[in-house]
Write a structure and sequence with these properties.
By secondary structure, the chain is of the alpha/beta class. Helices cover 33% and strands 23% of the residues. The chain is built from eleven helices and 16 strands. Helix 7 links the parallel strand 12 and strand 13.
Amino acid sequence: MVNKHIGKQTVRLSSPPQIAAYAAVGGKMESEGPLAACFDYLSADSYFGAKSWESAESEMLKKCFDLALSKAGIEASDLNYVFSGDLLNQCVGSEYALRDSGVPAFGLFGACSTMAESLSLAAMTMDGGYAERVCAMTSSHFCSAERQFRMPLAYGSQRTPTAQWTATAAGALILDCGESGPFVTHITTGKIIDAGIKDAANMGAAMAPAALETILTHLSDTGREPNYYDLIVTGDLGCVGHDILLDLALQSGWDLTAVSGDCGMMIYDREKQDVHAGGSGCGCSASVLAGYLLPKFKTGELKRLLFCATGALMSPTTSMQGESILGICHAVAIEADRNVTGGC
């Protein structure tokens, strides 16, 4: 058996799969942001033609799934698996989006880290020889997330400056054994980190230490320097969590400033849109990856990307019981060249 594990937490794929196609879907707030032109579809309202916000999230994710399949030139029946997750209880956003697809599905929950989690598991499944074509995707919806995790929207509660805006967005990626790239080459699975933060309106602070642990572990495991990557992008720390990450990195002897970015800071214009610390929700990093970052490989603007989606692991029950908010971050190296001989 070939040992693909390097260092503490990193896997080096021997047959890196290609990201063959990708799609991003968003809502009204996303249509007013700086990345509006990067989305494949934008809805004029929050309902996507459905009767509830939860159903709307499923419709949004199904739309994204169908668009990714269309761009790949395949049918759902051509997929071996779908790896998908969202923020709703029992991952119902994903499950109802896929109920008519007929594709074997894995439902995942990693909070806002779910896009990196789904992409990690999809790529490892292919590298292990268990599939030839898979889909990794995720979604979030501002209204359904607010109803589940915080206050009902009708309550009109005041948002604190550290709060982030849950993106109404979805991203879907199709992986196959093609040769043109970009390719998923390395995966660093994150550990659960407890920073002791209990404020559900300050998730950036809760997730930043987890982002640091995963990024530094990835660099140590691979022997790479930060500037090996054109961009090390987190999602979604927002401006508060991103500043904390950079400060913690400097304290650890690493300067990430030149190559660091955050999906939660990219998706909205914080000067013009009332999003406070920036975007969040697993659909935020998913849509930024699928709509904004991956197309840069085609233009040559990016050749090496470390995608580090971060998650705040919590529930309304744990918050009411006074538990701290746990953080996790998974890192996925996406590169224009696969750096190995042969494909999957």
